[in-house]
Amino acid sequence: MQVEINIDSSVTEPKVIILTDRMTEEINDLVRRISKPETQMIAGFRDDTVTLLDQETVLRIYAANGKVFAVTGNGEYLVRQRLYELEAQLRQDRFVRISNSEIINLKKVRHFDLSFSGTICVSLSDGTVTYVSRRYVSKIRDLLKL
After folding, report:
1. pLDDT digits over 25-74, tens only?
2. Would 124 disulfide with which of 15, 63, 128, 145, CB 3.0-4.6 Å?
3. Residue 70, CB half-sphere, CA atoms under 13 Å: how many?
4. Looking at the domain assignment, is residue 131 inside a domain?
């Protein structure tokens, strides 16, 4: 993909033009990224306080017992959004869904263990071990180009 930037002092608002021979998933993803204002913070609740969690600090987000939790280096926080809402809000190049109940931060992955038959074991930087469900294995393999 070629990128070209033209600086013109008469322009009052940035304008993005995409020239392509056909629509691809890469182009659709680019349009979504540019069009959607990216929310960096997630409201986390713990002990009658609200903490704004920066996406960079979140290791994983998971659902359990009808609630959604975000895990950071400072502990676990209750989140009042649904997992699918968070998935749409999070950076697509950093976060990936690994099961119906969990999203992980790829920047916080220590390693993937592919030795398990039919699934993938994920070790996170805080020592947490989790697993990619069978439904999402092909998506992760594609992402990792395996």
Report:
1. 888 888 877 776 655 689 999 998 999 999 889 999 999 999 999 999 99
2. 128
3. 29
4. yes
The strand pair at 109-113 and 120-124 is best described as antiparallel
Neighbours of 86 (CB within 10 A): 21
Q: Residue 58's domain is classified under what CATH number? A: 2.40.50.1020
Q: Are 60 and 103 in contact (CB under 8 A)?
A: yes
Nearest residue to 53 (alpha-carbon basis) of 34, 32, 88, 78: 78
Return the CA Rg of the chain. Answer: 18
Host domain of residue 137: 41-144
Mean pLDDT in residue range 70-81:
94
- For residue 144 the two structure tokens come to 């990792």
